[in-house]
Design a protein that fits this description.
Layout (H helix, E strand, L loop, with lengths): L2 H14 L14 E2 H8 L3 H10 L5 E4 L2 E4 L19 E7 H10 L1 E2 L6 E3 L3 H8 L5 E7 H6 L5 E4 L2 E4 L1 E2 L4 E3 L1
Antiparallel strand pairs: 1-3, 2-3, 4-7, 5-10, 6-9, 7-11, 8-9
Helix pairs in contact: 1-3
Length: 171
């Protein structure tokens, strides 16, 4: 099976709509690898290939179970350990949303976490999914000093639950 196609199917099953393919996730977002394979018509080797070689490092396998590490729109939280963020992070958004974000701050909305990028280029790529992108610089160091908890989703994704407008500005 094509890795990109399987990764997209895994994303839907593990991040957004497990019931659609007959899966149940536990409170930590885990399901047996065998159950995922049966639900998606994939082999364990194909699933392991997506986990090991997927470009966004979205998944992990531990003790025969698999889960999406971040990006969930399901209830509950996939717990990830807190981490010290770099001094500056970036958030890509649409031109239509930027004024409200600068007024009200960043909130997870339908996801579990706000997604931030360590590079302006990655934030621009993410923001372009919503039309003409606007890039916000995040003073992550000051936000962390004030109590914001950051988590590392992968090499290109930092996560937090919310950010006050005081830590945001147009890049």
């Amino acid at each position: 099976m094509d890795r990109v196609r399987l990764s997209k199917r895994m994303s839907r099953a593990l991040r957004h709509d497990p019931a659609r393919v007959g899966l149940e996730l536990d409170e930590g977002g885990w399901t047996p690898v065998d159950a995922l394979c049966a639900a998606l018509g994939a082999t364990p080797d194909e699933v392991e290939d997506v986990v090991a070689n997927g470009s966004k490092q979205r998944y992990e396998i531990v003790d025969g179970r698999v889960r999406a590490r971040y990006g969930h729109s399901l209830p509950g939280h996939v717990e990830m350990p807190p981490a010290d963020p770099p001094p500056r992070l970036f958030h890509g958004t649409s031109a239509g949303a930027v004024d409200a974000i600068l007024r009200e701050g960043l909130h997870a909305g339908g996801r579990q976490y706000v997604h931030l990028s360590p590079s302006e280029a990655t934030a621009r790529e993410v923001g372009s999914r919503h039309g003409r992108p606007v890039i916000l610089a995040v003073d992550a160091q000051a936000a962390a000093a004030a109590g914001a908890v950051f988590r590392r989703g992968n090499a290109d994704t930092w996560l937090t639950e919310t950010l006050a407008p005081a830590y945001l500005r147009r890049a």
